Amino acid sequence: MHAIEIDRLTRVYGSVRAVDGVSFHVEPGEIFGFMGHNGAGKTTTLRMLLGLTRPTSGSARVLGHDVVHESLEVRRQCGFLPASYALPAHMTARQFLHYVAAMFDLDPGVAETRIQSLLQLFGLEAAADRKLGGFSTGMTQKVGLAQALINEPRILLLDEPTSGLDPLGRYELLEHLRRLSSERGVTVLFSSHILSDIETLCQRVAALHQGKLVAFGPVEALKSEHRSANMDELYLSLARRAA
Amino acid sequence: MKARFLWLDMRATLGERKTWLAAGMMLYAAISMPFVAAKPPEHVLSALKGWFSTSDPFILFLFIWTDLAMNKCILVLGVVLASSLLIRERETGQLAVLLSKPISPAAYFLARTLSACAVMGVLYIGTHLAAAPFVARSLPGFRAGLFFASMAVHLFAAFFAVCFSALMAVLIQRRALAGFVSLMVLSLLVGMAFIGFYNPAWNGISQLNPLTQGISVLGHVDDLRPGHVLTPIALLLGMNAAVLALGALRVRHLEM
């Protein structure tokens, strides 16, 4: 069974086809790159996978669960970090993580243990009892990632997770993701327009352009097929061909 | 419904600045009202004597407390606590994080509204508990049973103010407009709450006003029975449930 299976997924807003008949699949335990320029349809696709946006047509399954009819079960097993978000400024990092844990019905004792280990993992122990309103972008992103991991998800959907991070924060985040995949077998759908991050992290990718899937497969095979030396060249070649 | 989530949400709301401002307003009412009631303006006194046919200072206080203080407080608090529900979270981007968890939008709306009701309850009951000893000492003929019976019924009208404001938030989906409409409608309901007292011809229709139900104990100050407390509470529970159901229905069809 594929971890994520998308079949002719389409979302139309008025006359705009935000996602247009997209099909691809993600294998369990892999870090899969989902690339495309801003507005290509990546975020809409991720939102449909979580059942937050209803597809106009097509279907998708996450760990075998239909994203429309079993969206709560999908969300129970997924962690999600949106591209653009804020955390409640009046809560501390610890309070917020407990708040999210309660949404998963986690036992308070289990939640406390997980929160402690996540705070440690992201180096947030010293800031755990400070209000989130005073956090820097990098620290907010770490809390964002911690909240996405609180339920020990089998699938992690990350939407532009490295934007806004400094080089060190970006490096640490990519390392965390590698560890999650290799040590815990977490499947990561890594959506980004920063192609170097995808090249660093992913073996296989899907590329969207104006809502349409323009490429899907192993990075090396795609580069060789399109005679591209790196991801930038590959994406430019794909985008030009699609235009 | 996730009970722990409800509890944590309530605790978080209690820690917000807006809640502290609301608490300050309630505290001001608790401290100032006994002074106002000790020497009420002449026109208020004569109107009250006309409606209640009594010069019992405690009854006069109860009217002033319920109408001039608590009715106004609950309409402002209802708007403050709930009129930006889900709108603020969506504007700031918090909703994208929160609704990616295994909780439906309708359940989230219900949990947040009930949590706001709980905060209203804490502030409202706290104010009464704080005011009671002060009033008992400064006002002759204080009747604790009547004071708290009136509080119990009016509390459910306070919950209505919260539920209604939350409904406006999800129907209108614009923070300022939702707050304004909630404030206007609730003000109108507060303003008409006593209409059945001074014009019995309006008594029947005014029973549909949740705020009239909320102050109904004042119509039974000399013959208060359990039914005078339980019936309006049951009616207000029904009204609140209907408003919550409408809100949940609306949220189900929203794409976040």
Short description:
Chain B: One of its GO terms (cellular component) is plasma membrane. The complex is a heterodimer of chains A (243) and B (256). Chain A is α/β, with parallel strands linked by helices and 243 residues long.
Name the features.
A: 243 residues, alpha/beta, Rossmann fold, 10 strands, 40% helix, B: 256 residues, mainly alpha, globular
Please provide a written account of the structure.
The complex is a heterodimer of chains A (243) and B (256). Chain A is of the alpha/beta class and 243 residues long. Chain A has one domain: P-loop containing nucleotide triphosphate hydrolases (Rossmann fold), CATH 3.40.50. Chain A is built from nine helices and ten strands. In chain A, strands 6-7-8-3-9-10 form a six-stranded mixed sheet, with helices on both faces. In chain A, strands 2-1-4-5 form a four-stranded antiparallel sheet, with helices on one face. In chain A, helix 3 crosses helix 4. The mean pLDDT of chain A is 93. With 256 residues, chain B is an all-alpha fold. Chain B has one domain (2-252). Chain B has helices at 3-14, 17-38, 42-52, 57-82, 87-92, 94-98, 105-138, 144-172, 175-191, 195-198, 203-206, 210-214, 226-252. In chain B, helix 8 runs antiparallel to helix 9 (175-191). The longest helix of chain B has 34 residues, at 105-138. Chain B starts with a helix and ends with a helix. The mean pLDDT of chain B is 90. The chains are: A alpha/beta (243), B mainly alpha (256). The A-B interface holds A 50, 52-54, 72-73, 75-76, 78, 80, 82, 84-88, 90-91, 95, 98-100, 102-105, 108, 144, 147 and B 2, 4-5, 7-9, 12, 15-17, 92-94, 96-104, 255-256.
Task: Record the SSE blueprint.
The complex is a heterodimer of chains A (243) and B (256).
Chain A: E1 4-13, E2 16-26, E3 31-35, H1 42-49, E4 57-62, E5 65-66, H2 71-77, E6 78-81, H3 93-103, H4 108-121, H5 137-149, E7 155-159, H6 167-184, E8 187-192, H7 195-201, E9 204-209, E10 212-218, H8 219-225, H9 231-242
Parallel strand pairs in A: 3-8, 3-9, 6-7, 7-8
Antiparallel strand pairs in A: 1-2, 1-4, 4-5, 9-10
Helix pairs in contact in A: 3-4
Chain B: H1 3-14, H2 17-38, H3 42-52, H4 57-82, H5 87-92, H6 94-98, H7 105-138, H8 144-172, H9 175-191, H10 195-198, H11 203-206, H12 210-214, H13 226-252
Helix pairs in contact in B: 1-7, 2-4, 2-7, 4-7, 4-8, 4-9, 7-8, 7-13, 8-9, 8-13
